[in-house]
Design brief:
This is Rieske domain-containing protein. InterPro entries: Rieske_2Fe-2S, Rieske_2Fe-2S_sf, Rieske_Fe-S_prot. Keywords: 2Fe-2S, Disulfide bond, Iron, Iron-sulfur, Membrane, Metal-binding, Transmembrane, Transmembrane helix. It comes from Mesoterricola sediminis. With 211 residues, this protein is of the alpha+beta class. Helices cover 18% and strands 34% of the residues. The chain contains 2 helices and 10 strands, in the order H-E-E-E-E-E-H-E-E-E-E-E. The chain has a 4-stranded antiparallel beta sheet with strand order 5-6-7-8, covered by helices on one side. The longest helix has 31 residues.
Length: 211
């Protein structure tokens, strides 16, 4: 091996770690600015990261034909995860309840239904849909006024919500599920929905944690 060839070989050998370190540093910088980037450099020109959305059918109208018919369901809420997986899903329990016509707007078919997250705003417990006034009195320390009807009720700290009444919430307006007993600071968080082809479709959820 000539002297020039030996020098060239040594430059290549010593330059490989430097080049590798530069590539790793560039990758770290790119992932700092775009954590969900996949697919190599092409990921830099991909659309901006956005929260995922999911339209999910949770009940059919044929299941909710009579006043106080209800159905419990699990909605998968998707959001950005800052990794190569991009999207993570959270399972949110919910209730859809058909309320009597006297509590609805004849011009709005959606007003026949109350759709809420089944998570108590007090401390995040899972609440129930209670039809029995005796159960409300004995199990939840709430004696409903006559004429009685079902309520949402939390078994943990005995918060009770009236699905036929609304309560003002800051920046949200009037929401169904007025607190009528217990320590809950507000009504249950809501879910947006549409009605299409005989199905109730959840289109999104009110954000926020407990309280």
């Amino acid at each position: 091996m000539t002297e020039n060839a030996r020098r060239t070989f040594l430059r290549i050998v010593t330059g490989i770690p430097i080049l590798g370190g530069a590539v790793l540093a560039a990758s770290a910088i790119l992932r700092y600015f775009k954590p969900t980037m996949v697919g190599g450099p092409k990921g830099l020109v991909a659309p901006p990261d956005e929260a995922g959305s999911s339209i999910q059918a949770v009940a059919s109208l044929s299941e909710l034909t009579q006043p106080w018919d209800f159905k419990e369901f699990i909605y998968i809420r998707k959001s950005v995860e800052y990794s190569s997986r991009k999207i993570q899903g959270a399972k949110i329990p919910g209730f859809v309840v058909r309320v009597p016509d006297e509590f609805t707007d004849p011009k709005d078919p959606k007003s026949k239904f109350v759709v809420v997250q089944r998570i108590c705003p007090h401390l995040g417990c899972t609440f129930n849909f209670v039809k029995s006034p005796e159960e409300l009195s004995g199990g939840y320390n709430y004696k409903p006024p006559a004429p009685t009807h079902p309520y949402f009720a939390c078994p943990c700290h005995l918060s009770v919500y009236d699905p036929t009444r609304k309560q003002e919430v800051a920046l949200q307006g009037a929401l169904p599920g007025k607190v009528v007993s217990g320590p809950a600071p507000r009504p249950p968080r809501t879910m947006t929905f549409d009605i299409k082809d005989g199905q109730i479709l959840i289109t999104g959820t009110e954000g926020g944690g407990v309280g």
